[in-house]
Design a protein that fits this description.
Length: 452
């Protein structure tokens, strides 16, 4: 890998203005910190391979973030913010070189109150969850990468995850209370956004502000039992998932439905899951296990794996096999596989899910994650795709959209072309104010490039 050439930049002069801040210039290290898991997509592999920054800065205070911002503005150098780099769309890959601002040392948990926490962006989700649970609370939702992912990275590049069946997605009102943001103006400053104003930077890939502090809500901590339930056919498993999602009296955190042969990719679970099974991976509050048994019987399911919350807290959680980690496990067996991200319409009979399951067969292996959208349990899918060509992938996406499914395209690094599908005038207006030179993660926001 070679860093993108930026003409007329005096890197020695810029570095001298970062006195007191950890700087990484070793090419191998810089290249490593310029990547995420965009390799899930063969399309993005072709577009992003070899893209790397020129140096990495690791601030430990907000004042140091301001110092980095000021230096980049002065020298007109691009700045790309990263957390742990667990994203999948090249969110933190620098397209035009420059400075990588690594937030992982901004990792202080400022305070935890009933139902609310204040943290720096580099705090790992697992670390926050552990401390919050000591006070009887937990994170509302987390990605399958929660052991390594950071809070700031999740807000900047994520959308939902384990817990979304109860609390919806990050963009839903109430799932992010406040942020502090450093600007890239001639004289960088700190802006606090509260309430609905947080949407100015929520899921913006760090294109319009550097988050230095967040207030996020917590949920009551439950003792989460983990179960795998198998079914003779996929649609029975899917309808069980819908019924569990609709069951308001059953407290749940995860409803993951995998069609055969997906479970065969889970090496650590092969001894537990019978061959050729369709299964549900569940996290349900222990206090709800008895009524859950009735629902399992109603759909003819068979429990092949069950752990109490205490047992599940040791070793590998079932969460590690769900959401984007399902794709990770599948690709560890067959690296030619890729994936889609699909939101099916609200329909209790799951007709479109059934149609797609039969229409594509094992070319597009069905993997559902139920989440809450506008108060209703909806099947989202992270289908595993047997990739052949980019044109065929586009055909698969096009067919889904023509049939009424929403595709959050994971094969693009452009913010608006992924899950948003439209330009966000609020985020664009905020970028125009706080990043007038367009230095923050350039090339990712279509609205900036198309503005008049």
């Amino acid at each position: 890998m070679t860093a993108t050439s930026i003409p007329s930049i005096d890197w020695d002069a810029l570095s001298s203005e970062l006195t007191g801040i950890e700087i990484i210039t070793d090419a191998t290290q810089v290249a490593k910190l310029s990547q995420d898991y965009y390799t899930f997509s063969p399309v993005l592999q072709n577009l992003l391979s070899g893209k790397t920054g020129n140096l990495v800065a690791r601030p430990v205070t907000e004042a140091q973030v301001l110092q980095v911002a000021a230096a980049c503005v002065k020298h007109k150098v691009p700045l790309t913010v990263r957390g742990a780099g667990t994203g999948n769309y090249g969110q933190c890959v620098p397209l035009e070189g420059g400075v990588i601002l690594d937030t992982t040392r901004l990792n202080e948990i400022r305070w935890i109150k009933p139902g609310l926490a204040c943290v720096e962006p580099g705090v790992k989700l697992a670390a926050l969850d552990k401390q919050a649970r000591e006070a009887g609370w937990e994170m509302r939702m987390a990605p399958s990468t929660y052991r390594t992912a950071t809070v700031g990275g999740f807000i900047g590049g994520g959308s939902g995850g384990i817990g979304s069946i109860t609390y919806g997605q990050l963009r839903d009102r109430g799932n992010l209370h406040a942020v502090r943001v450093v600007t890239m103006e001639d004289v960088p400053r700190v802006i606090e956004l509260r309430g609905d104003e947080v949407q100015k930077v929520n899921h913006a890939y760090g294109t319009n502000g550097i988050i230095t502090e967040l207030e996020i809500p917590l949920g009551p901590a439950y003792a989460w039992a983990e179960l795998i339930v198998t079914f003779d056919d996929f649609m029975t498993a899917a309808r069980f998932g819908q019924s569990l999602g609709d069951a308001d009296g059953l407290i749940k955190k995860l409803i993951c439905i995998c069609a055969a042969p997906i479970p065969s990719y889970f090496a650590a679970l092969r001894n537990q899951i019978p061959e050729n099974s369709h299964c549900a991976l569940l996290m349900v509050a222990e206090c709800c296990l008895e009524p859950l048994q009735g629902l399992i019987r109603e759909y003819g399911g068979k429990i092949c794996y069950e752990k109490s919350a205490k047992e599940a807290s040791k070793g590998t959680s079932l969460a590690e096999f769900t959401w984007n980690h399902t794709t990770l496990h599948a690709r560890s067996v067959d690296p030619t596989l890729t994936y889609l991200q699909t939101l099916f319409p609200a329909d209790k009979s799951l007709k479109l899910v059934e149609h797609m399951y039969h229409h594509f067969g094992e070319e597009v292996m069905m993997h559902l994650e139920f989440l809450r959208v506008n108060g209703t349990a909806i099947p989202a899918a992270l289908q595993i795709v047997r990739y052949t060509t980019e044109e065929r992938l586009k055909e698969i996406i096009r067919y889904h959209e023509e049939q009424g499914a929403f595709i959050a395209n994971p094969h693009t690094y452009i913010l608006e072309d992924g899950g948003r599908k439209s330009i966000d005038p609020v985020q664009l207006q905020f970028k125009e104010m706080v990043d007038p030179y367009g230095l923050l993660n350039p090339g990712k926001m279509k609205a900036w490039g198309e503005r008049k």
